[in-house]
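Honest question from a wet-lab person: if I give you the sequences of every part of a complex, can you actually get the arrangement of the whole thing, not just the pieces? Trying it with mine:
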Amino acid sequence: MLRDITVSSGPHISKGLSTRSVMIDVIIGLVPAMVAAGYYFRIHAIILVVTCIVSSVVTEWICNLIRKKPNSLDDFSAVVTGIILAFSLPPGFPIWAAVIGSMFAIAVGKMVFGGLGANIFNPAMVGRAFLTASFGMMMTTWTVPATIDSTMPKISAENTMDARTQATPLALSKEAQKTKAGALQVKQQIEAAFIGEVGGCLGETSALALLIGGIYLLIRRTISFHIPLVVIVSAFVFSTIAYLINSQAYISPLTHLCSGGLLIGAFFIATDPVTAPLTRRGMWLFGFGVGTITMLIRIVGEYPEGVMYSVLLMNAVTPLIDRLFKRIPAGGRPGA
Amino acid sequence: MSIITKSRLSFPGGIHPPEKKDLTSDSPIQSGPVVKQVAVMLSQHIGAICRPLVRKANMVQAGQKIGDCDAFVSAPVHSPITGKVTEIALRPHAVMGRSQAIVIEAYTGNPTKRSYFRLKDGFDVGKYSIERICEAVRQAGIVGMGGAGFPTRVKIEPNPRLPKKIMIVNGCECEPYITCDYRIMLEWTSEIIAGIKLAQKASGCPEVIIGIEDNKPEAIEAMNTALDSSGRNDDIKVVPVKTKYPQGGERQLIRSILKRNVPTGGIPPMIGVLVLNVATCAAIAEAVIADLPLTHRVVTVTGEAIARPGNYYVSIGTSVEQLIEFCGGVTQKSARVILGGPMMGIAIADLETPITKTTGAITIITKEQMGKAKFAGRQTACIRCGRCLQSCPENLNPTKIAHAVKNNLLDVAEDCFMSACIECGCCSYVCPANIELTGYIKTGKIFLARQRKKMPK
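Yes, you can. This is the full assembly:
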């Protein structure tokens, strides 16, 4: 009667979570931003996202084949990397370059370390950093959302890019703030940036869509609130201080929050569990680092956007943070 | 019936597994199988193993002491039935592999059936001296019945070096499925109170707190009523605690109720606390008042794969197989037979394994209950999500310890306080990568013990 009984170490029940279910949750959380991207950038957005997903997945498959490792595609982590990478590219980005970026992200950002769980840096950000370093011009050419300019932008030799491109609020603001006339424009920019009607990378345009996705992840407890909260708060505080010191030279904190990669970084990139610290206190420090370095780059540095580098920098120190905030048993150190 | 509000008394960490107690919570304690043969383990407790006091072919009486030891930390064992010793042989033991047991064939002419102990009116704790209580508890072979099996006499005896101030009675029963303590609290309430008073007197604790999870309002109510009718004094009180696993772990319960931490590697008496399980308290009353040794206990037989789940009063030494047959056998889909509950229980392969003093339940679950991830049986890489850290009630870093053990880095594991793990299983339960974190940590502890044995300081 009991031919099929098995034994194993306890516990014998489980919550039923799997890496796949966690990754699918993240994908669902990214859907609102995907919809926003599709709405503002039309077919370009869809092509880019699909390209990045497919090339990420294929790269992972090939890497596993070369390493003679079991297939790991069913954990869907490559899909997440693909989506996030696509979201951090400008809409008019060439397909071939996106393929190269995805391959680099998966192969160098993840698989050379030993696959999911072993990578030090966020793969999507590694891919983006590679693309920024290699194709700097293309990476900073932002097209206008289709809802503003009905003639869909095409990158071709016969048109000059400037005619159909627009600076992101961040790039614009740095210039515009210097004039009085620019001030009103900035105010409209904040509203536009919140709903997403601005130029920018695919997934970064609509703060609203990112917030919805982020709140979904928080409710599902796929991510904890610690990192997003402290990233946003520290970025806000830092930019407020700068704004109060010189409101002419620096743009308002709200513009900072609603634009660029800050929100997608706070909710989807910095929270990547593999490359973020394990402990709560470590998360506070990590988030503080991401928020502050982003603002340092944006305000003091030359780049208009700094989420990518700040995340990569903090990824690099994550093992140190984990060591710093070592967990001590509830009963204190033994023998103490 | 008063309304018991949700308790906030809790500890950091922990999980909320499905309780599944409704399978057996309404089934009253009933007599278990009349067995033809029992195998009484010589080691059913923490401490020195007993020496057999009988030989092959000896006749034994029900309640006769058949194994004892002179060591301080030990407890004697008794025969639950009248019969003949057929052999002293190895029997499967859930934790220790195979272990010595005295096998007794029942005398068929007059099968002994022990009825439940009922407290008679006129119980007065003043009639029993401390020495008498301690001696009775020792002679009855009482050990902690919540699972650890620490000899109770050692716990309750007055110790001038570590004076005890507060006694906590553990009625949490946080483990899913199990209801034996719950039924005891409902049905043997006054016996528990009597046992509490006896233990209180022996240990000299001025204060007693009965901690019960707030998902058992009937038990809280019953205990309060019994306290009222036995002449309530303020030194014994019932405190509802939050329903959360592992609330019934003594370190967690102390943390919830007293907001104090038992030192890592230490025991509750170090902070002046004594923790006793409700079933142990009932056994104390039985031993002191009626002079009955611990030869029977309530076992919950439960799980989706058993035909007739329920709470049974079972002879210690009954094999799991006999008990399963008595409960109507198992259904087709049974996948795992667990001694204890699904969280901390131990899966057994050999159904000859006898019930011991610490076996509170037999849980037989199906593949569906084991969860989707376990069902797939596939382990993926750790994604460092930190769920195990957040769920750990002892504030450890389970993933780091487990991976250190996996790579045979026991010094790293110890550096992360592996020995402080209480093996509650919360980390494995929540792990999305389906890593047997608790299993690795348990293995690591065994490796470490072996290593230390080989290389004495």
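Two things worth pointing out. Chain B touches chain A through 73 residues (CB under 8 Å). The radius of gyration of chain B is 22 Å.
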